Amino acid sequence: MGASQRPTIKTVAARAGVGRTTVSRVLNGSPLVSDAAKAAVEAAISELNYVPNSVARSLVTSRADSIALVIPESESRLGSEPYFSAVIRGVSTGLAESQIQLLLVLVRDQRELDQFTRFLAARRVDGVLLVSVHRDDPLPGLLEEMGLPTVLAGRRSPDEVLPHVHSDNLGGAAEAVRHLLERGRTRIATISGPLDMDVGHSRLQGWRDELRRGGLEPDESMAEPADFTEEGGRAAIRALLERHPGLDAVFAASDVMAAGALAELRKLGRRVPEDVAVVGFDDSIIARHTDPPLTSVRQPVEELGRTITELLLKEIDEPGSAEHSLVLPTSLVVRDSS
């Protein structure tokens, strides 16, 4: 048999009807293989007269000892949004006990996506953490096809197939609205996040659900989507006030948007909280430094970063072993804005 036809791990895997990882585990004497799979691999090895090439073997089993944290957002949002720095701190904590390096990747356009895809195909990282997931983002699907260990912070939809961790967006938003209802507010508007993100949808749904529980029918013209930026928050509150000059409260789906809304309300001569009460979401450092200080839904963002990292390390060591979905609790922190 010529060198070109020498059987490879791939041929053994195909003959045995298993994945290449399973073959490499059998070759390395790993205990993580069922007896049946081990027998099938050993039979295929003897039928094909496969001789493990130690160099090829080290390539199959070698690790890059690094993971990528991918953020599909602009540098300006990365810099202005405390959420991202908190996630990065949590990821670093999750890696502290390991020898694994963290690679931070911004994917902002098609060129950067293609570049990153080539990087992944060369298996330069052992796994990927994906933050800020948009419904039509091609990256989660690509990672799924490549079979590269992946964990998401957030999810594309409630049917997400990849392992993921997210805060209780629905419950947190409902608690914010309940607080406003208990303060006697009856015309409660909301500035939602982008509706191509599950986080935007879930926080909007929490607003609807809690209004209904409070005996009010949600009026969709009292909801205005924005993009999680301060300018987005300013534009959204202007649009809401044009439609509903008498609104008496607003729940913004992030502190950054709430800060924009607060600044715009002041500019328009509305007193907070006397005329309009405001609640944000994140309980980031921004909430303590607005004027007045912002009531906000606290989500454990650092814990989220740490948890996705722990799940990914588990998934890299034992594919298929990580929990599929984890929800982290939120709580309301009341300050002067409401």
TrEMBL record:
The keyword Transcription appears for this protein: yes
InterPro entries the record matches: HTH_LacI, LacI/GalR-like_sensor, Lambda_DNA-bd_dom_sf, Peripla_BP_I
UniProt cross-references to SMART domains, sorted A to Z: HTH_LACI (SM00354)
SUPFAM superfamilies in alphabetical order: lambda repressor-like DNA-binding domains, Periplasmic binding protein-like I
Family matches, as Gene3D superfamilies: 3.40.50.2300, lambda repressor-like DNA-binding domains
Record GO terms (molecular function): DNA-binding transcription factor activity; transcription cis-regulatory region binding
Keywords linked to the UniProt accession: DNA-binding, Transcription, Transcription regulation
UniProt superkingdom: Bacteria
Domain HTH lacI-type residues, every copy: 7-61
One matching Pfam family: Peripla_BP_3
Protein name listed in UniProt: LacI family transcriptional regulator
Organism: Streptomyces xinghaiensis
